[in-house]
Amino acid sequence: MKIVSTNIGERQEINWKGKLITTGIFKFSVDKSIFLDIEDVKEDAVCDREHHGGILQAVYGYSLKHYDYFKKLYPDLEFENGIFGENLTIDDLDETKIHQGDTFKVGETILEATVQRNPCMKLGVRFNNMKIVKQFWNTTFCGVYFKVIQTGFVKSGDVFEQIKSCPENPTIADLYVAKRLAKGI
Length: 185
Description:
Blueprint: E1 3-9, E2 12-16, E3 19-23, E4 27-30, E5 34-36, E6 59-63, H1 64-73, E7 88-90, E8 103-106, E9 109-116, H2 121-127, H3 131-137, E10 144-150, E11 152-154, E12 161-164, H4 172-182
Parallel strand pairs: 6-7
Antiparallel strand pairs: 1-4, 1-7, 2-3, 5-11, 6-10, 8-9, 8-12, 9-10
């Protein structure tokens, strides 16, 4: 696995069908290293601390390979790295093969896979279509949240070197499917 792009975003106020929404989901690729800190990515807006950021969800990674699936569903949408709100667009992140607790050396950092990303209405705002939320739930293309064990900078081209494997733990996809079933989706 390798970082294809690093993505950050600013806090934005969006008028969504007459309701003001505050979000940091509009992330865009930057041509610089980004600093992964204990609870978030420096210079990246996290507006909903209840569901994003914090120790267990400090960094969100998403697979570039998953983009192809959604491009077919939204052929008129301009897809840019970061469109799913991820901090790290990764060439081949496979949620069915990454277990909770798996740990990676990436750039100057050490990252531990913790939980899946559950889609919310802000993904629908980003896509300008609420159908994306259910379509996202109906896959295992949820992406991975990482805990930052060692802070530092990462950049495009940095490789994920696995330094700890936890095959006894559920995969990120297993966690996602269990959450979906618990929600009755």
